[in-house]
What we know:
Layout: E1 16-20, E2 31-37, E3 40-45, E4 51-55, E5 62-66, H1 68-78, H2 93-106, E6 110-111, H3 116-122, H4 128-139, H5 147-164, H6 174-177, H7 200-223, H8 230-260, H9 268-271, H10 275-287, H11 294-305, H12 308-311, H13 314-331, H14 343-354, E7 360-362, H15 365-371, H16 374-380, E8 385-387, H17 393-406, H18 410-420
Parallel strand pairs: 5-6, 5-7, 7-8
Antiparallel strand pairs: 1-2, 2-3, 3-4
Helix pairs in contact: 1-2, 1-4, 2-17, 5-10, 5-14, 7-13, 8-10, 8-13, 10-11, 13-14, 13-16
The protein binds zinc ion (ZN).
Amino acid sequence: MNLRPTRTPKVKEFVHAPFWACPDCSTEGTFGVLMICDRHYVRRCIHCWFDQRLALPPVKKRIIYLDQFVFSNMMKELDPANVGVVNTGSDGFYLTLFKTLDRLSKLQLIVCPDSPLHDHESVVDTRYEKIRAVFRQLSHDVSFRDPRTMLHAQIMRAFDCWMGGEPCLADSSWDFALTRNPHVWRDRYRIELNCILPGFAAALRTKNIVVTQRLREVCKEWREDPTFSFRETFENELAGHWRQILEQFARYTARFAAVHLGYAPFDDEVCFPPAALVLVTRMMTKLAPTFPNMDERIARIREFFISEHFRAVSGVRISALLWATIARDINAGRKSDRFPKASMYNDIDAVAQYSPFCDAMFVDKEISHFTRQRELQQELAGTALFFSLRKNEKADFIEYLRCIEADAPSEHIQMVEEVYGRDWPTPFVDLLADV
Ligand SMILES: [Zn+2]
């Protein structure tokens, strides 16, 4: 038997154009791009396997947040199964938008982060995997953190400043809000992990029905209130945030004590404590050295919740202002068939938590209208630009995006060509061909 020596195969497929002449073996057209790593990239010769690391200049990308309905409609216009069947009524707006965003994303000029809100709103759709493919194409692994986690982190920061007697400044660094640094050169490839908890979509659907029903009752109260006051509603919403935190904490600790003492069965409610428990426990721990008595600690936490430090938490203020603005609109005579649904909570969370970290947001028409009301305009000054399907805003958004490419320095565009090749920015309109 003739046994030939084996050697580790070297995969040429991972080395991409554009190919240069190799600086080591001088072969023409063999020195391609092996990988791109944030602030440098590696070239490799497919003839002699010589590697070279080359630095990349810093990039500062625009952060653009898109509401879930935008991804859902882009999916409909991209899906080959829908051609000639589904009419989104947009005259191709979403397809144009996808092409523009995908090109800008590949030119390393923008990132459209996905978020747990996108996931929760899409997982109840039978076309979830197709919607997910679209938002992941544009986010490229950059995700916003859960809005509740961000809100509690803001509150904890305000609490620390209140305890230390210092003024509270919001954390504006990207890593407070995003899971990865968006301002880097991205690789051609990304690895995805797909996992859906069994029963998750059904549980979300049931929760949405219950929340929508409860919201309708609150809306009726707002509409029928003859002494409605915007200021009072805002104050109630503000206080509602901390009351809910303390209620969840009290309910969980009471339940835990009952289970511990054998008065109640061990169940899911005890297994999965609410986020409020973690927040209040952290506050308690900070107070423990000075206030050994539990009641004293609770009293101090209540003091914090009515302090200016808590009132200054931007996520709480924006959310309370949005709800008060909706309430005012409803009180002015909005019909019950236009009452908000459970998804309004997601829309409000997105603006309240993500807008300070975005350059632009494309949101629901109603939300965009509210952001232009006096009180919110004041609160949101310096955060994102808001766009929606409202008259002129669609065209303004496309124009805003076109200006991003037009304003990019020519050296940056040349560097993109050097690293990724001339064809790279071509929009991936066949994205859903195999999904
Ligand atoms: Zn070589």
